[in-house]
Amino acid sequence: MSLKNLFAIILAIPAIMAAPTAEAKVAGREVLACACANAAGETKIDGYCQYIAGGNVEVDGRDYCFPAATWSEYMETRFTDDFCPGYYPGYTKGVCKTVSVCPLIGDYQKIC
Known about the structure:
Layout: H1 3-18, E1 29-37, E2 43-44, H2 48-51, E3 54-59, E4 62-67, H3 75-78, H4 84-87, E5 93-103, E6 109-111
Antiparallel strand pairs: 1-2, 1-5, 3-4, 5-6
Keywords: Signal
Signal peptide: 1-18
């Protein structure tokens, strides 16, 4: 390989890296966003949501934890009736809502 070809390849790398991937064009898909709820229907996710690679989304005026990474799509197994009262006293019920997520970067996703 000549030095000229090597130089051309090196110059092309930033353009290749900046090009949108096919993954970025994928339409949104549905996942479960969950929280712990009290008797009044108020929800809590603070602290624990970020610990399990979740992100905050507001649905019907309440905060829910959605999977902010593809490998964290297990919210319904975390925010359960068994877990909630011990972590958030007074918030005894695990509740979930369906939300749409779109790809972000790598394994990460965002609300569409």
